Amino acid sequence: MNVRHVVLSGCSGGGKSTLLAELDRRGFATVCEPGRRIVEEELRGDGAALPWIDLTAFAARAIEVAADDRRRMADQAGWVFFDRGLVDAAVALQHATGQPAREVLAPWEPYHRSAFLTPPWPDIYVTDDERRHDMAEAAAEYERLLIAYRALGYDAIILPKVGVADRADFILRQLG
Known about the structure:
Protein name: AAA family ATPase
Strand content: 5-15%
CATH architecture: 3-Layer(aba) Sandwich
CATH topology: Rossmann fold
CATH class: Alpha Beta
CATH superfamily: P-loop containing nucleotide triphosphate hydrolases
Helix content: 40-55%
Organism: Antarcticirhabdus aurantiaca
Number of helices: 7
Distance between the termini: 20 Å
């Protein structure tokens, strides 16, 4: 796999999607969050794999979608930025079932060693039809992800609480 695949993870509502849009605007290849795509699809259908209905089914679908994203972007030249991905889905599955994320991730190559995490940021956090959990749940998810990324050998870099352009500049400087 391409080690130029960079994952943006962290707290729900921490600005990942806005950051991804900024990186896209700058000409980088980007991949939208699997979870958002799944929720949109489930809201149009029977809703069986919604995270607030069946977290295990949701996480399993997120793994499938994220794996397809990695395969689809494998030959993409240059940096590719993913809004969440396999690690996030594996951590959700671990949270739901106890199955170790490391075991779930074994078939796939890791992303770039630097993973960028958005910290909890109550000032910008909002709920919507696709994000129904509260800030406390989002912060707990962030802690699980931070621990997991570090345990999996990633350099978990916490993004500063600054404007989106400055965040994008920060990431690009870190990547050299």
